[in-house]
Amino acid sequence: MSIPKEPRQLMINLMYLVLTALLALNVSAEVMNAFFSLDKGMKKSGSIVDANNDAIKASIEQTATAYPTPRNDSLKNKAVEALRVTQEFNDYINKIRTDLFAAAKGASKDDPEIPQDIRNKDLTTRMFINEGLGAQVEQKIKDTRAALLNLVEPKEKANIEKTLPLDVEAIPENIRAKYNNYTWADYKFKAMPVAAVFPTLGKMQEDGKSSASAVLASIAKSMNAVDIKFDAFQPGISAEKSYIIAGEKYVADVFLSAYSTSANNITITAGGQNLPIKDGVGHYEISPSGLGEKTYTVNISVTNPLDNTRKTYTKDFKYEVGQRSIAVSLDQMNVFYIGVDNPVSVSVAGASSNQVNVSGSGVSVKPSGGGKYNVTATTPGEATLTVSAPGVSQTFKYRVKRIPDPEPLLGAQHTSKMMGNGEFKAQSGIAAVLKNFDFNAKCEIVGFTLTYLKKRSDPTPEIPNSGARFGAAVEERVRQAGPGDAYFFDNIKCKCPGDAVPRPLPGLTFRIK
């Protein structure tokens, strides 16, 4: 097994060897759990390698798009294939990890990421030796390694092959001499406790990702070796900000967005000024007078290194000069309601959102990003918001109110009225409906009483009902409805978000026709 050059990979290998050596001892549960700590550490390390691989691939694709040649297209496709091959190997090992976890009796009570049967050696021997899974893993490693090496340029292949981490390492001679017909699968998995196999599999995945890194780096090196000459140009600008306060300076860097060392015959003017140029970038600085939108013109003259022709590229840029001010907008209504999130938008001219601070008195304020805030209130009355930014601070006053009373409705849609016998019997309860309320809030019926007046009879005693839906006693009276009967729903109470105690609502009366 070759010694890796990368310190992180070397450290992972050393940790793996040390923990594997502990298997020769009567190790404690803590040491067994240490295998899973190592496995988690390799997963975190693997995520870093993934991000690095994605960044290299994106850089390769960007270069291939900017400079489309058959060679660059081929290198880009190889980079995509390298990650595909690695992902396929990673998914293959993940499937084995899932099967092993389930076979080891699933998640333990103390830690759902650790299986119950972590000491079982018979299970790993059966799966990887007797059932042949270890030999399949060995072949998968060989196939994946060969597929990755096949993507490397021929002149780089010998160097990459020596250092590629993903490999079927040789069995030490002392172990091979001690056991007859000892295979790689025996060496890696036979009589190994379940706890030791997980970091073994994790290291294979880490080696696969590191191997992809080596291949991608080789591809990027091959692409960068191409002599690239730019043949298209576009003026660009990098301004400190496009909106400034009166008295401040407007500062911007004007540059050629596609620049080559061979394109050294460049002149840039901005706003009628000749700009000094360094590395293809001209620095423009001006102190504008007056407020409002300002426009200036950029001219860049450059000699094309491909055909030696000289062209001038022109573009107008705009910025605005204003005065600092604060704007607070309540996204729903000009009042804070108790029990719901009150969205607020805050902006300070000339200041970015991360320079703005919003605090509340009588309410709590929580930022939600992009100049947006959620305000929550608990007590009716008056509240204030104080908005501050560099050089400015302002306080705003708002009313704090309870959520308006909802309207009680039979079946969530009927108010007091004459109602047909069949329609009335189809109802199942009373709802509290917030009409014309712009917030996402729901009020719940706590209870009510029903008085039933049968035609030409005395009213029955009140029937109390808990909750919004009809209880058994109320349902029985509703089923008795006949023409000329009357029903009175009184003492209706509900609770809305933020309510400490139920609030009363108007009663409902229905006559059966």
Number of domains: 4
Average residue pLDDT: 83
Question: Measured on Cα atoms, how large is the radius of gyration?
Answer: 37 Å
Spans of at least 5 consecutive residues with low confidence: 22-26
Helix content estimate: 25-40%
Determine the structural class based on helices, strands and strand pairing: alpha+beta
Q: Distance N terminus to C terminus? A: 93 Å
Which assembly state applies to the chains in this document?
Answer: single chain
Strand count, sense and barrel status of the largest sheet are: 6 strands, mixed
Number of strands: 25
Number of helices: 11
Shape field: flat
The share of residues in extended strands comes to 25-35%
Description:
This protein has four domains: 7-224; 235-322, Immunoglobulin-like, CATH 2.60.40.10; 326-401, Immunoglobulins (Immunoglobulin-like), CATH 2.60.40.10; 407-512, no CATH class. It contains eleven helices and 25 strands. The longest helix is centred in the first third of the chain and has 38 residues, at 29-66. It is flat. With 513 residues, it is an alpha+beta fold. The strands form six sheets. Strands 19, 21, 22, 23, 24 and 25 form a six-stranded mixed β-sheet that branches. It has a five-stranded mixed β-sheet with strand order 2-9-8-4-5, with no helix packed on it. A four-stranded antiparallel β-sheet has the order 1-3-7-6, with no helix packed on it. Mean pLDDT is 83; it is low at 22-26. The chain has helices at 7-21, 29-66, 70-103, 121-130, 133-149, 154-163, 173-178, 184-189, 194-224, 421-425, 472-479; strands at residues 235-239, 243-245, 250-256, 266-270, 273-274, 277-278, 281-286, 292-303, 310-322, 326-330, 336-337, 342-348, 357-361, 363-369, 372-377, 381-389, 392-401, 407-410, 417-419, 430-433, 444-453, 463-466, 486-495, 503-505, 508-512.
